[in-house]
Amino acid sequence: MYHVVIGVDDNEERAMTCARAVADLPGDAAEKRVTVIHSFTDNPSGASASQLASVRDATEYLEEQGLEVEVNESSGDPAEQLLDAARDADADLIVVGGRKRSPTGKALFGSVTQTVILNADRPVMVAGELD
């Protein structure tokens, strides 16, 4: 079974881009297992990851494609949480969404995608835009 971990933030479009990329991976849907993870950096309302539209949409799409899906949530630095989840699950692939950021934005605020790419100990696929 090929295990994919997808990091999903609050953006529904990026979440769906990642979900479609995973569904399009070679092989039968029955041979793939997906863990969708969302890391809360601030959650004053106490929401669960499954209540977020981005997580719910991606999960529903993957299930409609016949993939086995699990949702995990964590709190803290999203890149670290995603890398830890992939390592703990011994995932075969990490999938993250790309987005355009200015060089100054990257330097000042960092990038979850960039951090995951640079620190992953397994393959990383970036779905969507990356400048």
Automatic annotation (TrEMBL):
Pfam families: Usp. Belongs to the universal stress protein A family. Residues 3-126 form the UspA domain. Signal peptide: none annotated. It comes from the Archaea. It comes from Haloplanus vescus. This is Universal stress protein family protein. InterPro entries: Rossmann-like_a/b/a_fold, Universal_stress_UspA, UspA.
